[in-house]
Specification:
Length: 131
């Protein structure tokens, strides 16, 4: 319910096998409104280029092996404790509109802190879109 409407749980630690390796996707959902799979990777550390590459690979594997012809492209979400904007800027994530990284908190911020975070994101968004 916290993800929003239309999400159906598909798998936890879904095992994906390639010719030479085994991989495990933390969480897999399907969204009936978006008509696509949503893969979630949980990182208990700072975002790295390896994490982005890993999610990019998961999305490509899912699009190749699981996505049906009438499905939209798979979305990949990386939740991490700290997001490095430089890593995001120079990675495949900046070119792929279906990969996202977001900082998560292990606690709910108070109302004042939440307002400050929203305002900071709004200002950053406006500055980014002025260029």
């Amino acid at each position: 319910m916290e993800l929003g409407k239309g999400f159906a749980f598909v798998a936890r630690q879904q095992h994906i096998v390639t010719d030479t390796s085994d991989f495990y996707i933390d969480l897999v959902f399907y969204n009936y409104f978006l008509k696509c799979f949503v893969l979630v990777d949980l990182k208990t550390h700072k975002l790295t280029h390896e994490s982005i590459g890993q999610m990019d690979m998961y999305v490509r594997i899912y699009n190749d092996l699981k996505k049906e012809a009438d499905d939209n492209p798979t979305i990949g979400i990386i939740l991490c404790t700290e997001k490095d904007e430089t890593v995001v800027k120079y990675s495949v994530m900046s070119e792929n509109e279906k990969l996202f990284a977001s900082k998560y908190r292990t606690y709910l911020p108070d109302e004042k802190e939440l307002k400050n975070l929203i305002e900071a994101d709004r200002v950053k968004f406006e500055l980014d879109n002025q260029n």
